[in-house]
Amino acid sequence: MGKFISVTHYKEESLYWIELNRPEAYNAFSDEMMDEIKAALTEAEGMKDVRVVIFSGKGKVFASGADIKELNEMSPIEALFPRMQSLYDFIYQFPKPTVAAIDGYALGGGMELAAACDLRIATGRSKFGLPECKLGVIPGAGGTHRLVKLIGEAKVKELVFLGDMIDGAEAEKIGFINFVVAETELKERVVDIAKKITEKAPIALRFAKQCIQRQADIPQEVGMLLENLSQAYLFSTKDKTEGVSAFIEKRKPLFSGE
Ligand code: CO8
User: Best mutation site among 20, 21, 22, 26 for ligand 1, i.e. most ligand atoms within 8 A of its Cβ?
Assistant: First the structure.
């Protein structure tokens, strides 16, 4: 794998880690970091044996959001083609499951990155917030849209209008965080949870993700049709034959992703 500057990326068995690595700027998203995340994701997408992508932050911060020093230089026309928003859309649509492993601040674009992942695992001491209006801007990478679908309009308005931070326990209570874990166990718990995902059939996960994510934007009957067509396709896969045979033969399935 190539060497990146603002991101550390490595593969451990079937898990691909993307670690945000700008501790001097509290892992704020520079253009360089966003380019490197995209390149790492493209690599992970092409590696057949990668089953789950995990985002984490170097040091005691997940991500402090957009690099405010770079925002200072940004013109309105540049803001019209938002790189962060399109990167997070790419992450949300990523064909493999994604997990955010959070310890510390996840603010602004940091919270929105977590929202773009499929699952979120955080330490209790983590701090979540959307402080953009203090800067005269708004959450610009799904915070007024994707996040509303996740935790509801009332809570997002509270986070945006008050600009206060919430901790991991509160974030779990509102349904943003799936699991709160001790800081000493974050990596271990994330690996355990991610490995559980890797035991499932990859194509089935991919179709399930599509169906679940599309449902809010389409009429119920179209969602049901999408579910039905996905299911019919899955009946033609080797993984479905393997999964059902393994159950009948009382053994663990070995999925090839075909
Ligand atoms: N960008 C750049 N540098 C940052 C950022 C950031 N987001 N956050 C922290 N830093 C830097 C600080 O400048 C400081 O660097 P230095 O030592 O060189 O001065 C270093 O990290 C440590 O920061 P602090 O000294 O402030 O550390 P504290 O522990 O006192 O505070 C906080 C930590 C609470 C995280 C604080 O740094 C903070 O509030 N950071 C800003 C968080 C924020 O406002 N995030 C939202 C940014 S806007 C956004 O994400 C979306 C905008 C939409 C853009 C759409 C474009 C089209």
Answer: 26
Residues 138 and 220 in one domain: no
Residues 216 and 191 in one domain: no
What's this model's pTM, rounded to 2 decimal places?
0.96
Say if 84 falls within a structural domain. Answer: yes
Number of domains in the chain: 2
Q: Is the CB of 103 under 6 A from ligand 1?
A: no
| 65 and 131 part of one domain | yes
Give whole-number Cα distances, 65 to 96, 135, 166, in Å. 24, 12, 16
- The residue type found at 102 is I
Burial class (CB in 10 A: 0-12, 13-18, 19+), 81: exposed
Active site residues: 112, 132
Summarised one tens digit per residue, pLDDT across range 107-124 is: 999 999 999 999 999 999
Q: What is the pLDDT of residues 24-79, one digit of tens each?
A: 999 999 999 999 999 999 999 999 999 999 999 999 899 999 999 998 888 998 88
**Pocket flag, ligand 1, residue 59 (CB < 6 Å):** no
Q: Tell whether ligand 1 has an atom less than 6 A from the beta carbon of residue 104.
A: no
